[in-house]
Amino acid sequence: MKRTIRWMGAFAVFCWVSLFLLPAAMAVNAKYDFDHFPDMSDYDPNNIVKPEGDTIKIAIIAAFSGPAAAVGQSYLLPVGWVAHDINKRGGIMVDGKKKKIEIIIADNQNKPDVTLKVTERMILQEKVDILWGTSGSHLQKVINQLADKHKKISVNAISLSDELMDKDNFTKYAFMTCFSTEQIGRAFAYFYGQIRKKETKFYILNQDYLFGHSLAEGFKVGLKEYFPTAQIVGEDYHKLFLTDFAPYLTKIKTSGAEVIFTGDWIPDAANLLKQSRQMGVMLPFANIFLSDPTTLTEVGIEGTTGLMAISQSGTGNPVFKNEGIIKYFKVWDNLWKNKWAKPYNSLSYKYPMGALGTYMTSVYWLASVLERAGSTDPEKVIKVWEGDSYQTLGGKVMTMRACDHKMVTDLHIYEFVPPAQQKQCFNIEPYYWFEKCAGAGPVYEIPSDKAIPKADPELCKKN
Amino acid sequence: MEAYIAQGMHGLAYGMVLFLVASGLTLVLGMMGVLNMAHVNFFMLSAYLGYQVVAWTGSFWLALLIAPLLTAGAGILMERFLLKKVHAFGPMAELILTMGVAFIISDGVKAVWGTQNLPLSPPGSLSVLVNIAGVQYPAYRLFLIGLAVAILLLMALVLYKTRLGMIVRAAVADAGMVDALGINVPLVFMTVFGAGTWMAGVAGVAIAPILTVSPGLAAQMGMDAFIVIIVGGFGSLGGAFLVAILCGLLSAFGVQFLPQYASVLLFVFMAVVLAIKPEGLFGEKES
């Protein structure tokens, strides 16, 4: 009897462990095909070619005008690149014929009411197949609601709030291809508590809206789990587009913090870093979006050394693991240097990695799912994408959790070091990312089971 | 204690920057009755021009001299060729026109400089920390405080101690009478408008080393600047100065003591003042 109980216990443990390890261990269903990488020399993000005939229409819903116009531009280049790559291969076989991808710009001006109008226009007038967006969880929520109403596939590649996929907001038509707030917070907590084991005092400074609070909660949950002796010595939330960070930096200075944990995005992230260094606050930032090379270069090597950046698309060192990826990068680099005009010839677009890599992966994955579904019919797409595993061009495996359509993957945290120490990461000439600022050097892997995306128990139980 | 001293200085520095932006706005509103919605866009334009001058010459000081003058030139052209023509159609026409100019400037800077953040660093001599009462404080922020005080004194001197200032004040009170005395009133107004945009220009270049130069710059400062002129009273330079300082201090100490309410404190302050004194602290009641 005792033996039976022991075996049953062992079996239960096995099942429990499998449940958590399942996404990471799942077989890869598809991966990026380097062998057929086409001639991309005619790709120009400022003049994206509209394919002829019957197409698969993808609407990029983002701000293309107003103060946040740079956001939309930063999506257009990578999404257009992937579309061009696929179109040069002949397109995707769906519904019995090869169709090319057509990109349609949907300018939401970063406003909820405009997002509603422009998304409806994309669905009803432009008859798009896919809604792809967007920066701002409140805006993504609007898109997902419309996707649900009109039964369209919505791909969220950018907005990170867990709440977008909880039981109240989940729709089977929406897929989150980016990481999410609790996942990020817990990954950082795991890194500081279980890997780095150095700093113990943290100050949370985030933007005062859903994302900032959600991220902070994730970090605190993670600290409880992985680093219970750590201290949160301060916690503040500032308004978006803040002008003066000095009052917050003074509080941070007097708090005794050893690390500033922030999810701020540009321009707040840039102004926070710049002003902190001007005020002599040289603490490291555990961050997501402090990667704008223009700002990093302005702050310089000393001010950017020690930054800790988390990445969902990055992999372990080195970055250039095979000939395929080196060729891919060199084609991009050549176009960046010699062909692309403003704004795409700026430092922000120098590498098809980081945020750009994340957006590209999202579209490559989507295209692969469409091809395997053999259709743009949302129901068929959902069937293929749920539980699907895809290997990115960097070699990373991403899995779409079936119960709530959140992406599960290993995460990586990059430590910023001076250019001379970056060869371990940037393993081809010139062996550094940027000459005048620190960049990724040592990289630390956070296994996916240590930072599983938050799952709404009701939602995941139901499925 | 050091933290409180530091917060006081942050408040003062931010208040001074706010004053630099708001002073030109209140000057034009008070003297000409024009609510220039493009004012903060001129502020942004100057930051971009400053960036360009630094990119060409490497000199921040040259940028601080040239960019505001170019901005003032743009303001003068706007007044001479656009604003003057719609003046007869009343304040609504002027408001719509200035909003149109705001959009043109906004899209213009994006067309010329793109949408990326552009870097502009403080000059090397001011990129240091100085010790004030035990607080290590950035020299550049001290420079900002000094610059704003100097401009306040200059404007007060011109307005209240010179013949030009006397004419301006007289033209504001009774333009017809001043015109009858043989003084070119349109020229006076053009000068006032130019001075207003020059002050926005100075603020634009001065704040750029603290922030990044981006198309969002106007929106970032616009709301706070409008709060300052509303609470200070339309047209009151002294009011703008005092309220800008109060707003700066409220922001800094708000973060220190009431961080969860810091972002709404300025609005509460505005609401309280307007409830008690609808014309603003130093504004004049309409007769």
Folded structure, characterized:
The complex is a heterodimer of chains A (463) and B (287). In chain A, a hairpin with a 6-residue loop joins strand 14 and strand 15 (407-408). Chain A is built from 13 helices and 17 strands. In chain A, helix 2 (69-88) packs across helix 11 (354-373), helix 5 packs parallel to helix 6 and helix 8 runs parallel beside helix 9 (293-304). Mean pLDDT of chain A is 91; it is low at 10-25. In chain A, 40% of the residues lie in helices and 18% in strands. Chain A has helices at residues 2-25, 69-88, 112-124, 137-150, 181-196, 210-226, 246-255, 268-278, 293-304, 323-338, 354-373, 378-385, 457-462; strands at 30-31, 55-62, 92-94, 97-107, 130-133, 153-156, 174-176, 201-207, 231-238, 259-261, 285-287, 308-311, 389-391, 397-400, 407-408, 411-417, 439-446. By secondary structure, chain A is of the alpha/beta class. In chain A, the strands form 3 sheets. Chain A has a 7-stranded mixed sheet, sandwiched between helices. A 6-stranded mixed sheet of chain A has the order 3-4-2-5-6-7, sandwiched between helices. Chain B has 287 residues and is mostly helical. Chain B has one domain (2-214). Chain B has 11 helices and 2 strands. Chain B has a two-stranded antiparallel sheet with strand order 1-2. In chain B, strand 1 (129-132) and strand 2 form a beta hairpin. Chain B is globular and about 60 Å long. The N and C termini of chain B lie far apart (48 Å).
